[in-house]
Write a structure and sequence with these properties.
The structure holds two protein chains of two kinds. Chain A is mainly alpha-helical. Helices cover about 70% and strands about 0% of the residues of chain A. Helix content of chain B is about 25%, strand content about 35%. Chain B is built from 19 helices and 42 strands. In chain B, helix 3 links the parallel strand 25 (about 345-350) and strand 26. In chain B, helix 9 (about 480-485) runs parallel beside helix 11, helix 10 (about 500-505) packs antiparallel against helix 11 and helix 18 (about 720-730) packs antiparallel against helix 19 (about 740-755).
Chain lengths: ~325, ~750
């Protein structure tokens, strides 16, 4: 990820081949035995470096590489017990499973709706709070408060609001409307989107406010002197300078959109109403029923889609933000 | 450098692979503690008695109060039997106990004598020669452990005041290091008497006193159930109150007993594990589990610790109770280095909980097998989060920690079978020469999946629904529609104990195939029948009030048509006789509602187990499992007077049981006339019945009932139960219509079905 002004100009960089780099380091190193022995270029230096790197490397292997390898292994065997190689059968089976399709569809719909809303609304809030309105500080605190509420309390609040006998239905009843079974109908995903936005807007807003404050003031002043309109300033300057932050917020929101499972699980358990059934439900349930092969195949498919989406986001950011990066 | 990198990478991968795959336990005779194991040694006692009443240890001796019943004189004699475990010698000591006296409790005194609480009963005889005007008194004795002579005694009735109506009963009794006597009357009060048997004080406990014992140091402690489980507190006679709870003890509300220790303050026994507790450090040290030393903890009547750290246990085998009374065994448990004990191949029996009959079979197997030793891993034992234990159990099934034999009690064996966790047992039976046709094929079939046998049960009972034939006709089964039609307008007089959840179990959970078609991947929880079931359940209370006074007993209600359907299980011919006797007329066994009218369900009793397909010890595991099908084991379940083991699965054993059930018992009077005697007596609520020898018709009816059972009871996934319970609630509260909640249930369960199709 690139941040404006973080790196020196490209012309200053010197690219050396590894062989040349090694030679240069050896030449630069003092000739005393002791120093030469601990230099990274020497055999001992490499061993010391390897020793320091070993715990981190072990951690990465143990907690990232190995689990992923296990997931890949389980995705190509028939079940965790007999472990017969079946190649892509699990992927075909999972892709044809209607529950998986339902979960993938719901997750995609949710992410497509919730993530842009989370980015746009938080950006709007950040812009609003950046302008000189009264009670700015109080509003900022207000929007951040959902982050401080424990997830179990969030669910409790949401149950009070959207239960069949909850506050929202009381309000509807006041206006003479029929009650809505918010959590057991097609409205369920609306409830989840609102819950997601309530929980995430504050954090995104703070990130955008930080990005806004780091835009060089002289460029903005020049734009004003050049009679640029506020929209032009926003579109041509602010948005471009914030492109890396927008990418970051989008990726974080995308990741958080997958985490909304926690709230749904606490609200409705393993098998919610079908509009709330997410990919994480599918994976959790298949795990508890010892269908590790299904879970692994689903996880890999989801990971591939995630990599493609994030890759696309990086390309977009590179395209829009390249002219503001130092 | 490249070589180094390869070496480092190989080392890392080796560490990771070891961590990933774990290592299965190999060899070993039993679970070791610091390289040591406890080994049982069976002591030969030459005591001739019918019953052992109280037991205590005095130094390295075990002293028993034994009773011998003389059939000829129709009198009992009471004496002491002292066995010196250090010398290996036993001796009988006479004891001057009257015919109307009973030694209620016995413990070792501080001076090497024995302290006894003796209950005496007196009565007068009325004009008809019947006993009347019962009186009881309680006396404290100090008895010489050498010759049984009474050194001193005192009537202590006044000590208790009016604490109990109709005589005092001493629940716990012990003597402290100063020779003071401590008596607990079972009403949360401890009475303390000095050496001269004069009352010092009485101390009240907040809760029921579970046990009381003196520590090695000479102080007396009690255990009660407090807010955080079982608590051990010191009885402080100086302050006349109980001390603060001791720490370092395993928490929970289990059955923890404590006995005076010799090397540490107390020997602790929670009926599973035996440990030592040290008061000075407030720490508990595990010694062994009863199963590891081949002892059935249900049979342990007393235990103690010798000065050299060995542990003794007196067991009473209830299963072997015959004409000569139960079989008592004195077992000495010595600590030995694990390497000194013959090594056997280790087989793990893993289950959420282990049936007591299975435990007994494992102990018998371990005692007799030279090659194999079964250890038990009970995942659900003493855990706070049963769901987490279940998850761990499932996770273990896929790893190297997988048990060799998997206990399937109340688990969905279809799930495990479909995941390849279980072996098909038919090839094993065939290889062992066990003929499938010798067993009840419909019962084996109930545990089949795609023609393969995944669960093995040694015995079973049948769950069914009984109704008067005059009410329902001569039916042997019914569908849910037929059942609901019959119930229409009769809801109040339908079941003996009806509640909403029981209706769900009755109509839905035991009939789940009617609502889920796994082949097509469709479910039918929005069907007319399901909606009708919801409406039917709504006519019942959320929970049945068992405490409510009812004018009539159940039999009377059945006979007067106030209870039309009796949902019950039948595990013996005697139970069948009693249940049909309750109706007083011809009965139809309809079973649970079922679309194929096959609603009589099989329920395993005496364990249900499968063989792990990942096991590295399949041969040994099968050797144990096949024993449960053997003629010897199946015949061991037979009982002349009815039994509680259920019906054996082996046809020949079942026929032998039927023979026994039909064989009359005779009583021969003084003139030599034989009169048929009741085999046993059965009762339920207001109904009592002497069970005579069964008729051929009764046995045939039981046989056809057994033959009609083809499905297993209660294997519905808890997830479905939770969804139905949760979503039907608004209907019962009148907030939603039955059709609305049925639609939501259908929607949620359809995801479950889709996931698993």
């Amino acid at each position: 990820m690139h941040f404006p002004g973080k790196f020196p100009g490209k012309g200053k960089k010197v690219r050396l081949s590894s062989k040349e780099a090694g030679t240069k380091l050896r030449r630069l190193a003092p000739r005393s035995e002791k120093s030469a022995g601990s230099s990274p270029g020497t055999r001992r230096g490499r061993l010391v470096s390897a020793g320091y790197l070993f715990p981190s490397a072990l951690g990465v292997l143990l907690f990232f590489v190995l689990p992923f390898m296990i997931v890949i292994f389980y995705s190509v065997v028939d079940n965790p017990i007999s472990r017969q190689f079946v190649f892509l059968d699990n992927f075909v089976s999972v892709f044809n499973n209607s529950a998986f399709r339902q979960a993938a569809g719901n997750t995609m719909t949710f992410s497509l709706v919730a993530v842009p809303l989370a980015v746009v609304l938080s950006l709007m809030l950040a812009m609003l709070l950046e302008s000189k309105i009264p009670f700015r500080s109080q509003f900022r605190t207000f929007f951040l408060s959902p982050m401080m509420v424990p997830i179990a309390s969030v669910v409790l609040i949401w149950q009070v609001l959207f239960h069949y006998n909850g506050m929202m239905n009381e309000v509807l009843a006041f206006f003479g409307r029929d009650r809505v079974d918010w959590l057991n109908s097609s409205f369920a995903q609306v409830v989840i989107v609102v819950l997601f936005l309530w929980k995430n807007l504050g954090y995104n807003m703070i990130l955008f406010m930080s990005a806004l404050s780091s835009i060089p003031k002289d460029i903005l002043e020049v734009a004003v002197l050049e009679s640029a309109t506020p929209f032009q300033i926003f579109w041509h300057i602010k948005l471009r300078y914030m492109s890396s932050t927008i990418l970051f917020v989008t990726i974080m929101s995308l990741i958080n959109s997958f985490k909304v499972f926690r709230e749904i699980y606490l609200l409705k358990g393993d098998y919610p109403y079908d509009t709330m059934y997410m990919l994480q439900h599918f994976m959790n349930n298949t795990f508890s029923r010892l269908d590790y092969q299904k879970m692994s195949a689903a996880a890999i498919m989801m990971a591939i889609v995630m990599v493609l989406i994030i890759g696309a986001l990086f390309l977009t950011e590179n395209y829009f933000g390249k002219d503001v990066e130092g | 450098m490249k070589k180094n990198r390869k070496l480092i990478l190989t080392a890392i991968l080796a560490v990771l692979m070891t961590m990933l795959w774990g290592c299965g336990g190999e060899g070993g005779s039993q679970d070791e503690t610091d390289g040591y194991v406890y080994v049982p040694e069976y002591v030969q006692m030459d005591v001739d008695c019918t019953y052992i009443n109280s037991v205590t240890s005095l130094g390295d001796s075990v002293i028993m109060n034994a009773i011998k019943w003389d059939e000829e004189s129709q009198e009992s004699s009471n004496f002491l039997y002292r066995y010196d475990l250090a010398k290996g010698e036993g001796e009988t000591i006479p004891l001057a106990v009257g015919e109307d006296d009973n030694i209620g409790a016995m413990t070792a005194g501080a001076d090497g004598s024995l302290a006894m609480v003796v209950n005496s009963y007196t009565y007068e005889t009325d004009e008809n020669g019947e006993p009347t005007n019962y009186k009881s008194s309680i006396t404290l004795w100090s008895v010489s452990a050498e010759d049984g002579s009474i050194k001193s005694q005192k009537d202590i009735n006044e000590v208790f005041g009016n604490s109990q109506d109709g005589g005092t009963y001493v629940q716990n009794f012990c003597v402290d290091g100063q020779g003071n006597f401590y008596l607990d009357d079972g009403n949360n009060t401890i009475y303390v008497l000095d050496q001269d048997m004069n009352k010092i004080c009485e101390i009240k406990a907040d809760n029921w006193i579970r046990s009381m014992a003196a520590s090695k140091e000479g102080d007396v402690y009690i255990s009660t159930y407090g807010e955080n489980g079982l608590e051990m507190r010191k009885v402080d006679i100086a302050a006349k109150k109980l001390g603060e709870p001791q720490t370092g003890l395993a928490s929970g509300y289990g059955n923890q007993d404590f006995i005076t220790g010799s090397t540490k303050s107390f020997l602790m026994d929670n009926r599973s594990q035996v440990s030592l507790y040290d008061l000075s450090t407030q720490t508990e040290e595990a010694l062994f589990s009863w199963l590891d030393v081949d002892i059935n903890s249900d049979n342990v009547s007393q235990r103690g610790e010798l000065s050299d750290g060995r542990v003794w246990a007196l067991t009473r085998d209830y299963g072997s109770e015959g004409a000569d009374g139960p079989e008592f065994e004195l077992i000495l448990l010595s600590r030995k280095e694990a390497s000194q004990v013959p090594q056997k191949e280790k087989i793990v029996y893993g289950a959420m909980w282990v049936d007591s009959n299975v435990k007994k079979a494992i102990i018998d197997f371990n005692k007799t097998s030279d090659k194999y030793r079964i250890t038990v891993k009970e995942y659900g034992e003493a855990v706070e989060d049963y769901q987490a234990a279940q998850t761990q159990f499932n996770a273990d099934l896929t790893t190297a920690d997988c048990p060799d034999i998997i206990g399937l009690n109340s688990l969905d064996y279809h799930l495990y079978a479909s995941k390849g966790v279980l072996e098909d047992l038919y090839p094993y039976m065939e290889k062992s020469g066990i003929n499938k046709a010798d067993y009840l094929e419909n019962i084996l079939g109930a545990y089949e999946s795609d023609g393969k046998l995944y669960g093995l049960i040694p015995a079973f009972y049948v769950s069914t629904t009984m109704a008067k034939a005059s009410q329902v006709g001569d039916k042997t089964g019914w569908t849910l529609s037929e059942m609901l039609e019959f119930a229409e307008g009769r809801e109040e007089n339908l079941f003996a104990y009806g509640s909403r959840s029981s209706i769900f179990y009755y109509c839905i959970y035991n009939n789940i195939d009617e609502f889920i078609d796994w082949e097509s991947g469709k479910c039918f929880f929005d069907s007319e029948d399901f909606i009708k079931t919801l409406e039917f359940a709504a006519k019942y209370p959320e929970e049945y009030d068992y405490q409510a006074d009812r004018e009539e007993g159940i039999s009377s209600r059945i006979r007067s048509d106030k209870v039309l359907l009796l949902d019950s299980s039948i595990s013996s011919v005697q139970e069948f006789q009693m249940l049909t006797g309750m109706f007083g007329e011809k009965v139809s066994f309809l079973g649970y509602p079922n679309s194929e009218r096959k609603g009589n369900l099989v329920q395993a009793t005496g364990g249900c187990m499968g063989l792990s397909s990942k096991s590295k010890h399949k041969e040994g595991a099968w050797e144990f499992m096949q024993r449960l099908l053997s003629e010897e084991y199946q015949d061991s379940m037979l009982s002349e007077h009815g039994n509680s083991f259920g019906f054996p699965v082996k046809k020949s054993a079942l026929e032998k049981q039927f023979e026994l059930d039909m064989t009359p018992d005779y009583f021969e009077d003084e003139d030599g006339n034989k009169t048929e005697n009741a085999k046993t007596s059965w009762g339920w609520d207001d109904f009592q019945m002497d069970i005579m020898a069964a008729t051929q018709e009764e046995v045939d009816a039981v046989r056809s009932l057994i033959e009609s059972a083809e499905k297993v009871s209660g294997s519905v996934d808890e997830q479905l139960v939770n969804i139905i319970t949760e979503e039907s609630e608004p209907f019962f509260k009148g907030q939603k219509s039955a059709a609305d909640v049925a639609g939501i249930i259908q929607n949620r369960i359809q995801i479950y079905v889709n996931e698993n199709s």
